[in-house]
Write a structure and sequence with these properties.
The protein is an alpha+beta fold. The protein has 16 helices and 18 strands. The chain has a seven-stranded antiparallel sheet with strand order 15-12-14-13-17-18-16, with helices on both faces. It has a five-stranded antiparallel sheet with strand order 5-6-10-8-9. Strands 1-2-4-3 form a four-stranded mixed sheet. The relative contact order is 0.12.
Length: 472
């Protein structure tokens, strides 16, 4: 990168917060996809004013600029695929305010999700969205990706808790959307536009979040079924009984085979599906809810039921879910993880479709996820070093997404689109809708500097000769 540009960056954030060191560039070059693209420079911002000034510089020099949090995404959204500037926001990590009277929190984007949850719970409050990465993912990343989690069946996803934002636009202006009230219909709903936009329309520098009172108690149970159909019927029966659990997690037969012998909870030899069900609320009603759940699911081939009596036993049940990911490596060394969504009544049909795809291509596919909202985490387990395996994985992925859309589902529930799913966007969205989205991107970011190359296939480079100030 040109020395003049580096000097300008140093003048904005301080020389100690600008790095072209290979180690720092590598550290910020990859995410959970394990792809790697080196940026030209890494910049650490501490304030909205610094973010604004850096973006103005990038726009002036036509430099690609990518906002980055923890880099824990699964679809390449935080990869600097066109080089340029990686603008790291993890040092903007202040919980600015927790307002117990109005049930809101105001935070900077670098706050780790679980840190906010612990802080508000200490005050008797509750921030429900709970992505699996909550111990290290940041709230800015959660908002940019539209993160979810197991509790969304009852409480909803990140977008349901974002009341307002402070955003730096691609030209470096600072705007504020929404506000501190639940009701606000003044002008366009720009808050929802930025939520889930993957850093392509603006850089989020402050977030106003809705909070809830903390539930008084919870009950956790693990139920083993003889068939995946039985588990799916049980999910429908629970919802049909007007009981909305906090979580309804499922593990399919392939997943169970991975954890059998590893889990501290004994799993029956003929178990082909597991549901982890948790309810929360007033302590006096939880026992009744558990009894009602057990009564409505009893006809669906239950093999065993375990109900936690203590927090330690609840943690032991959840450990069954947590050991899944590390146990998958027993199948094959390389994991391609996608999240699809289908109507929850269609989960068995989707699982059967996945089994057929696995058999047709002779690759293992392991599935688990959020049965309560039909969100399936599909794990294609292969050895990518085998000849032709990369091409096979591409075919498998396309068939998986086609099957999900055919069931009136979606190719992404909570992981975004990024680069990994861009080529499948037209499976779900018609050309007119994609064109409308592209028009919004072009209008807000005419120089295409902000996280270019994401969401849309064939995104144009900054300029035919390469970005100004960078090697072409």
């Amino acid at each position: 990168m040109e020395k003049k540009v580096l000097a300008e960056l140093a003048a904005i954030v301080g020389a100690e917060n600008v790095s072209t060191a290979t180690s720092d560039r590598i550290t910020h070059s990859y995410d959970a996809t394990q792809q790697r693209f080196l940026p030209q420079v890494v910049v650490y911002a501490h304030s909205t004013a610094e973010v604004s000034a850096v973006v103005q510089l990038a726009n002036r020099h036509r430099l690609p600029i990518l906002p980055r949090g923890a880099g824990s995404g699964f679809t390449g959204g935080s990869l600097p695929i066109k080089g340029g500037i990686v603008l790291v926001l993890t040092r903007m990590d202040k919980i600015i305010e927790i307002d117990s009277d109005n049930l809101i929190a105001e935070v900077e984007p670098g706050v780790v999700t679980a840190d906010l949850q612990r802080e508000v719970e200490r005050l008797g409050l509750f921030y429900p969205p709970d992505p699996a990465s909550k111990e290290f993912s940041t709230l800015g990343g959660n908002v940019a990706e539209g993160a979810g989690g197991p509790r969304c069946v009852k409480y909803g996803v990140t977008k349901d808790y974002v009341l307002g934002l402070e955003v730096v636009t691609p030209s470096g202006e600072v705007i504020r959307t929404g506000g501190r009230t639940l009701k606000n219909v003044v002008g366009y709903d720009l808050t929802r536009l930025f939520v889930g936009s993957e850093g392509t329309l603006g850089i989020i520098t402050r977030i106003i979040l809705k909070l809830l009172p903390k539930p008084a108690a919870k009950k956790t149970m693990l139920v083993q079924f003889a068939t995946i159909d039985g588990a799916a019927q049980a999910v429908s029966a629970i919802i049909g009984a007007k009981i909305i659990p906090t979580t309804l997690e499922f593990l399919d037969a392939a997943t169970i085979d991975c954890i059998r012998g590893v889990s501290r909870v004994a799993i029956a030899g003929n178990c082909r599906a597991i549901l982890i069900i948790e309810v929360d609320g007033d302590a006096e009603v939880l026992d009744r809810q558990v009894r009602e759940i057990l009564a409505v699911i009893e006809p669906f081939g239950i093999l065993d039921t375990r109900i936690a009596a203590t927090d330690a036993e609840s943690e032991e049940i959840w450990q069954v879910r947590r050991i899944v990911s590390p146990s998958l490596r027993k199948v094959n060394p390389d994991k391609f993880n996608e999240d699809i969504v289908v109507p929850r009544s269609k989960v068995p049909e989707m699982i059967r479709a996945l089994e057929k795809i696995a058999a047709r291509y002779q690759v293992p596919i392991v599935n688990f996820g959020h049965a309560g909202d039909g969100n399936i985490h599909v794990n294609v387990m292969v050895d990518i070093r085998q000849p032709g395996m990369a091409e096979t994985v591409d075919k498998v992925m396309e068939e998986i997404f086609q099957a999900a859309v055919a069931l009136r589902g979606s190719i992404s529930g909570e992981h975004g689109i990024g680069t990994a799913k861009a080529k499948y966007l037209d499976l779900e969205l018609d050309p007119a809708t994609i064109t409308y989205m592209r028009t919004i991107k072009a209008a807000l970011d005419p120089n295409n500097i902000l996280n270019p190359g994401k969401i849309f296939r064939g995104d144009q480079p900054i300029s035919p000769a390469g970005p100004a100030g960078l090697p072409a």
